[in-house]
Write a structure and sequence with these properties.
The complex is a heterodimer of chains A (204) and B (191).
Chain A (H helix, E strand, L loop, with lengths): L1 H9 L14 H7 L3 H25 L8 H23 L1 H7 L10 H11 L4 H31 L1 E4 L2 E5 L1 H5 L8 H17 L7
Antiparallel strand pairs in A: 1-2
Helix pairs in contact in A: 1-7, 3-4, 3-5, 3-6, 3-7, 4-5, 4-6, 6-7
Chain B lengths: L1 H13 L10 H6 L4 H33 L5 H23 L1 H7 L2 H4 L4 H13 L3 H29 L11 H16 L6
Helix pairs in contact in B: 1-8, 3-4, 3-7, 3-8, 4-5, 4-7, 7-8, 8-9
Classes of the chains: A mainly alpha (204), B mainly alpha (191).
Chain lengths: 204, 191
Amino acid sequence: MGKFAKEFAKGLILSNPVFVLALGLCPTLAISTSIDNALGMTLAVLIVLLGSNIIIAAIRNYVPNITRIPIFIVIIATLVTVVNLIFHAYLPATYEALGIFLPLVVVNCIILGRAEAFASKNPVIHSIADALGITVGFMLALLMISFIRQVLGTGGLSVFGHDLFSLPVLRDHPIAIFILPYGAFLVIGLLMGLFRRTGVMKSE
Amino acid sequence: MSELVAIFLGMVLINNFILVRFLGLCPFFGVSKQLGSAISMGVAVTFVMAIASLATWLIRNYILIPLDIEYMHIVIFILVIATLVQIIELFIKKTNLGLYFSFGIYLPLITTNCAVLGITLINATQDYSFSSSIVAALGGGLGFTLVLAIMSGIREKLELANTPKSMKGLPIAFIIAALLGLAFVGFSGII
């Protein structure tokens, strides 16, 4: 069980997919405009990454080395199709909000990266821990970025239609740049710098 | 014709693939350290985007829609792109070995570039005609190449600048991308 906990914890900070490995940047930047989108994307990544890690770890001894990448991609693409159909049927609002980035989970480097670097070499149980840890690390990064962008860009926070709070001055004069695409680059760049300055993560 | 021009300009300058749509960020931060490799990467991606748009348009309109299996488009598109990249890799290896080695690892990695799958999905969701799809792919690719080239020019100079230690590398690249994006807002009024 110790190994399980270790594989889980490593995804949170030491190899955080977004801030340290800089993987999966496209969806991170694109959908981090609100907490709702961040949670929707996390759910999609969780289902696909967990599924692909389990399947790939289970068949890892039967997959010929030379054709492994196409096999992994077909497995991942099938899981993404399933997630797309589920979201379309049960979470139509999230499906609309994520738009093109839901099918683009296929080419999210996090998923193929974990399949290649971890699941294809480790047993199923450790691959589950790895998937969960990476997803939680991805979720933390997404939530942090979307929280900052939503609060500064709209002057308040509302999650799934519930207004949690709104700030006095910002409510009337939100800083629109944080909601716009350029704000995403700015927030991630500053957060990465902050983490390195405070020593949470290593500088280059 | 004016519709095609609008799509083209929109793809290159207004809805730029990197700065506004956030597609193809991995090569954007990975390959944008030298001008030369940035431009060859941009050209390769543009080429694959155009060929992939052509192939997926034909497959979608003559196979997927008539058979009513459009929900399979993610699996089909990614397989088409992976196959195309493999064929192009073999072709370049046979015809121009120097170019093949200058691309190195980035050529097979084009398969997992969101910009390529992105353009085929955009074409599908917008229901673009055949000519619009190709023009959109070329515009998107050109916009990608343009921003990649600008970024690599800035980063070459940045090597000599006195950046704070904790901002070196990726963090400062993100900040520059934000400023570059703000500059591109100026184009939004042209169509």
